[in-house]
Design brief:
heterodimer; A: 290 residues; alpha/beta; Rossmann fold; six-stranded mixed sheet; four-stranded antiparallel sheet; 9 helices; 32% helix; B: 273 residues; mainly alpha; MetI-like fold; 13 helices; 0% strand
Amino acid sequence: MNQLSPRESTLLAQASAPTGRIEIDGLTIRLGEGGQAFDAVQDVSLSIAPGEFICVLGPSGCGKSTLLGALAGHWQPHKGAIRVDGERVAGPHPDRGLVFQQHTLFPWKKVLDNVAFGLKMKGIKRQARRASARELLELVGLAGFEDRYPIQLSGGMQQRVEIARVLINQPRVMLMDEPFGALDAQTRLKMQELLLDVWARVRTTVVFITHDIDEALFLADRLLVMSPRPGRIIEELRLDFARPRHPDLVTTPDFMRLKRHCLALLHPQARIVPLERLSALGPQATHLNQ
Amino acid sequence: MEAIHSARLDPALVRKLGRLLLRVLSVAACVAAWQWASSRHLNLGLVTFQNVPSPRDVLEAAGALFESPKLEQHLKASVYRVFAGFAGAMVAGIALGLVIGRSRLLEDVLLPPLEVLRPIPAVAWIPLAILMFPSSEMSMIYITFVGALFPILLNTIHGVEGVDPRLVASSRSLGAGRWTIFTEVILPAAAPNIVTGLSIGMGTAWFCLVTAEMISGQYGIGYYTWASYTIQNYPEIVVGMLLIGVIGMGSSMLVKKIGNLFLPWYLMQRKKP
């Protein structure tokens, strides 16, 4: 989308080391307590290659956010385990960056300092971390917005900042929970292209949750379809559309065929009552005082 | 003519000036009513103005005070006591508020005794304050401290409990540890409430000044007010009251203004509809 400076490419080269292999083995996540307990995710086994772009598609309340929250380390497995590059996921870590539908930028920090936050946590000096943050803002097309506060940006821009803030940690895995769900259709398409463009450069593993079939088919290398609660993976589709992908991909016969297939899988006629939205943040999101 | 001129002015400015004028007029009307009631020795049965000094008497007494060399010493003594008490309350109130708002255990341990102490009026603290502290200066500072503490504490707790848990979770994902979550997320997120608490606390510290300076033997605006009562100098009492009111309001606004310098993002948020 924009030209890379030599400095920027070194930053990205460091990020593109072949890590980010995810192994999910017999994972069950149980939520709620006592008689109310239920399996939000049931017996999911899955292997994701480094640098792969995975979309998880499923109806509301199917446990896809919970699965993502478990990958982030906000939920603990009831059974089974998650490993990233062989290490068991025990809690949140900057190696596994999360992007939500509603941005979680710090309203009191300017855009530049929001992006630089991860490096500040690593103890990197102000000047150096701000320089890196500038590069990432350029990468997501927000050069010139460094000194704005989040509230001064549009929804799409806020999500770009959010993505830049996650990427500055050079995460092995980027976890995205319907990140473009709150954007208007036009902005949404632009953001999807931007994400693919960014991903083509940083080559981190992406796990992207959505309930939008077009979005999932357009973005992913591999598409996983989840069943309604208890969430299980009922279908796996490899998407071999050539990259870079263009927006007119969605009108090709192959794409339409796959879309019809997904529609049938999601059973729109047997609509289930949407359940209370579960957060990927894990239990601390509802119990502040801990 | 007038109407034509003002129509050309910025309407927002005109509205602002209009409101300011209204506010000044409101104060002037109160003083006028007071002058009228006290000069007539108005007796309404339930309340009487027979012995209430008139604004003119008060103005004369104020003139005398402002010419007296003691004024500076009164002011210095009071400002010192209020600010020392306020500073202590700021440190204690924010620190306690942060931990109480964050931890259920500490809330259970620390909050109940504080809740018991909270309704106790400053004046009831006088004897114990004298017993507890070696110098009367410290006792007085303690009373202004008690006055300022609770607004700061309660607003801080409120602010901390209102912090968006998503921000905390996402800061953890970005590598923030226990301590940095406090300094980088909790404190700035609660800052607007803390500033409100500080501003109210500054007001209540002045509110307790007369009480505090009942202990004093020589200087202070509160002492001046209290001493004027004991020697029946009624206009001086009103001078003291007004002086405390005006300085209290001024320093409370000052705290708010200084606090807002740190909160540009918050003011932006509030401007948005």
